[in-house]
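User: Okay, second chain of the day. Same drill as before: sequence in, structure tokens out.
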Amino acid sequence: MESTVSMENMESMTNTKATKEKSRREKKQPKWKWLIVGIAAVVLAVTVFWKTKELLRERKETEARIQQNLAMLDQQDVSADSMRVLNWTILPEASNALSTSLTRAKNLLSHLIINEEKMRANFDCSKHFIMSESLTMKLAAKIGRESAYNLVKNLLKHATGEHSFMEIVQASPEIRASLSVEEITAACEPLSYIGANDALIAETLAEFERVKTVEIA
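Assistant: Same drill. Structure tokens below.
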């Protein structure tokens, strides 16, 4: 009987010691975890505060701009409505875009270097195939547009690139029946196929001279 009581007392004492040891360990847990949680909470609160303050400031600025624009639009004159708003936005932006485009074009042209020999060498690399349209238009004046187009298209279809376009055309009996060697050579000359380029340049320069002398009222 005494042995049984003794065993129960020992178990009770063991449980009591375990409870006290657990309580002691819990009390000794590091406090830095709670410190980090507190710092994170403070940072979050400060961030929310400043974001809210910034949003309120932006809202006040937006409302002030709206009130200012409404006050300006409330003027009772001939330009107080949509045309005035149009002048405020589209015209200045278009002027800025045009000014920037002209400035860039001026800078580009002022630094542009033209190498005529290199340009001619680059053209010769095409073996005159790029002048097929010029020859087609020259031939169309003799046999009609559709016939000339089909004839030149058939020549290009069977071209291998071994011979130049001028050689292929001069070897074609159908084209030689309508065009002489001199006409074929002239049609394959790039300087002879610039269309109304000179007339357009002269017209543009004349219009510029006229406009720049007009006084703006």
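Residues 32-73 form the longest helix (42 residues).

User: Thanks, on to the next one.
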